[in-house]
């Protein structure tokens, strides 16, 4: 290869890298950032056998968390249980549930608070819930807006490792004993779980599709979500 050819190749490669970096910057600054692994799962009816299982668990105790997901409720009353995390000795370590005519609740270590959230209009909504073991402080966001907050929810209790994370059902024993009356009905997408409290701006950016963050504990990927009992799955991006 001649020196001229080598120089030309080097220049072309450099230009490709520059163009690639420019495209990355354009994507980062563009509204409606597309989720590269976008799909939804659906629970068309209440059963005790339709569920998703997350093929991940906590390896260590965590002292704070944020869980975000897109939800579209089905026909009421109550949407049921979008997710539950059970550990040995405590079936209700972390649960989001709206059962019957009761308001939506967050359970941590079997202690519950009422969340001022409502998704009864059969439309997609972005929900985020944060919690910290320090004083048991929690916050609830719907569509990027904080709807409520409080404290003393299982204060100083770390979320235990080694549990089972289930989508669509409330666990009465580790990984099972589902009750159809508490089952989730509707559709969900892009569930992410972090071991920290996200900032209000980070939450708003996700709800408004200005950015897409992935959880360090649970990332919404097809290889991570294991479906059972006829749960449906379709390509879907709530931001598009």
Task: Write a concise synopsis of the structure shown.
Helix content is 14%, strand content 36%. The chain is mainly beta.
Q: How would you portray this structure in words?
A:
There is one protein chain. By secondary structure, the protein is mainly beta. The protein folds into two domains: about 30 residues; about 200 residues, Jelly Rolls, CATH 2.60.120. The chain has two helices and 14 strands, in the order αββββββββββββαββ. A seven-stranded antiparallel sheet has the order 10-9-8-3-12-1-14. A hairpin with a 6-residue loop joins β5 and β6. It starts with a helix and ends in a 5-residue tail after the last strand. The relative contact order is 0.26.
CATH uppermost class of the largest domain:
Mainly Beta
What structural category characterises the helix and strand content? mainly beta
Helix and strand run? HEEEEEEEEEEEEHEE
Number of self-contained structural domains: 2
List the helices and strands and how they pair.
Elements: H1 3-28, E1 39-43, E2 51-54, E3 64-73, E4 80-87, E5 90-98, E6 105-108, E7 111-114, E8 124-132, E9 137-142, E10 145-150, E11 164-167, E12 186-194, H2 200-207, E13 225-228, E14 232-235
Antiparallel strand pairs: 1-12, 1-14, 2-11, 2-13, 3-8, 3-12, 4-5, 4-11, 5-6, 6-7, 8-9, 9-10
Features:
single chain, 240 residues, mainly beta, Jelly Rolls, 2 domains, seven-stranded antiparallel sheet, 14 strands, disordered N terminus
